[in-house]
Amino acid sequence: MVPRPKMLNFEKMTLKPIILFKYGGNAMTDQKLKRQVLINICAIKEKGCHVVIVHGGGPFIEKILKEAHVESEFIDGLRKTTSEAMEYVEMALKGRVNGNLVSMINAMGYKAVGLSGKDGQTVIAKKHIHLREENGEVQQVDLGQVGDVDKVNPALIHLLLENDFIPVLTCLASDQNGLDYNINGDMFAGHLAGALKADQYIILTDVDGLLIDKDDPASILRIIPISGLIKLKNEHIIQGGMIPKAESCEVALKNGAGLARIINGTKPEQIPSIFEDQTVGTIIRK
User: Fold this and answer.
1) Strand 74-75 relative to strand 123-127: parallel, antiparallel, unpaired?
2) pTM, entire model
3) Beta strands of 135-199 (E only): which ranges?
4) Residue-wise over 38-50: b if at least 16 C-beta within 10 A, else e?
5) Helices 242-254 and 226-234, interaxial angle, to 10°?
6) Which of 59, 165, 259, 260 has CA 20 to 30 A from 5's CA?
């Protein structure tokens, strides 16, 4: 018998720290700001780190659906995604947003590779089961092709990192049967950060960090453990779009990431200081 080749252990091969950035919000819609964000993210490689970028693209999805005259319905903040809408969601995320980010990074002299969770079966999706309460009764609502992360296999990402590429992933994945799903970008990034055992999971958003009072910038929390994060969520201090961000930090840390940090992506000059400055954004620890 011919002996089977040994499987490579990519976790042992990857000696450089891995920094995973979740990129979204207003920092994506302003082209000049986008360039500054990418310059500062890519500069992290010069510090001897591997860089991974995960992005969504809500405003771009909204635009392409309007252009195609496809109705878009939101239920409890989640976009109902029909099979017709799913085609345009993929066009927006992979064709427009991902392609543009890859082109910009390559023009800076780095080697970016555009991916989704479908590539190399990096992420396997499952249908999102959405429950809502109406008239005192809990009902299940069908959101179409909206998915959750079921499994993550980071082998392809490790392979790219070891060959000096910057993987740029958008939050699409297929299930075991090949049906495509749109996944919340924050949760997609959190699961991937955990599976990669990322040293830092950095969420770039539109605010300076977690605030006790959303209207008071001085109420920012600088360092908080997972337990404190869960407490704030249960007390409804963390609300709206910050909820999936907080939950993604929890997922990342519980699955192997070193630390998570939420910072303001509209202030890209802060990005290089994530190694030294304890006063940039909010740090979430285990």
Assistant:
1) unpaired
2) 0.91
3) 137-141, 146-152, 166-170, 172-174, 180-183
4) bebbbbbeeeebb
5) 150
6) 165
Q: Which helix (H) or strand (E) holds 200?
A: strand 200-205
Domains of the chain: 14-285 (3.40.1160.10)
> pLDDT (tens digit, 0 to 9) for every residue of the chain, 286 residues total?
444 444 445 444 558 999 999 998 767 888 999 999 999 999 999 999 999 999 999 899 999 999 999 988 888 878 899 999 999 999 999 999 999 999 999 999 999 999 999 999 999 999 999 888 777 788 898 999 999 999 999 999 999 999 999 999 999 999 999 999 999 999 999 999 999 999 999 999 988 999 888 888 889 999 999 999 889 988 888 888 888 999 999 999 999 999 999 999 999 999 998 887 677 899 999 8
For 130, 133, 146, the CA distances from 80, given in Å and listed in that order, are 11, 17, 7
Whether the CB-CB separation of 200 and 41 falls below 8 Å is answered with: no
Structure tokens at 249: 């930090």
Please return the burial class of 10, using the count of CB atoms within 10 Å of its CB with bins 0-12, 13-18 and 19+. Answer: middle
Residues 90, 115: Cα–Cα separation, whole Å = 12
Residues 6+ apart with CB under 8 A from 233: 243, 246, 247
Q: Which one-letter DSSP state was computed for residue 109?
A: T
Q: CA-CA distance, 166 to 187, in Å (whole number)?
A: 20
Return the C-alpha torsion angle 267, 65, 247, 51, nearest 10. Answer: -50
